[in-house]
Design goal:
alpha/beta; 7 strands; two-stranded antiparallel sheet; globular; five-stranded parallel beta sheet
Length: 176
């Protein structure tokens, strides 16, 4: 399993698509956007769910967290059953988010990847996308990496997605 962590608009999704193209075998791609899409509408912007502030801040409520933790255990079960998974995540609470995933993935071989992107570049991508709350990318660019431990880090601001994916794939291959 490969877990990518980076802020909004850092380039994780593009790297994931490239990883699927360059890694041997079939890799499933999941991420925080998959989870958000599966959540009931009441938890996407409602009490106990995911609250998005006008300034781009994101607050995770207890019911959303409960379902998120269950989802992590489900993804881990797929890996235990033989699926290869690359995960696109945003650890809003940094190391605490990684600890929750480490608990779910206990006993599995996981490559932890930090996807860094400077705040200005991420904010520019956010504006170009047009589907994010302004300020989210800038707010998350550094905060999601606080206290994190990675096996490899890439800088998506100055490196194309494929080059990042090749570096990650090389690091993954060296572990197996």
């Amino acid at each position: 399993m490969i877990v990518l962590n980076g802020g909004s608009s850092s380039g994780k999704s593009g790297i994931v698509r490239c990883l699927q193209a360059v890694l041997p075998g079939a890799w499933l791609a999941f991420g925080v956007d998959s989870l958000d899409a599966a959540m009931p509408a009441a938890l996407r912007g409602g009490e106990g769910g995911l609250e998005l502030g006008a300034d781009g801040t994101v607050t995770v409520g207890p019911e959303y967290r409960r379902l998120s933790d269950a989802w992590a255990r489900g993804v881990a079960a797929m890996v235990r059953a033989g699926a290869q998974v690359v995960l696109d995540e945003v650890f809003l609470d940094g190391a605490d988010g990684q600890k929750r995933w480490q608990h779910a993935l206990d006993g599995l071989d996981v490559l932890w990847v930090g996807v860094r992107c400077d705040p200005d570049t991420a904010a520019g991508r956010e504006t170009a996308r047009g589907d994010r709350i302004p300020g989210m990318a800038r707010a998350q660019a550094e905060s999601v990496h606080r206290g994190m431990r990675y096996d490899v880090e890439v800088d998506s601001a100055g490196t194309e997605s494929m080059a990042c994916a090749l570096l990650i794939a090389e690091r993954y291959a060296s572990r197996t």
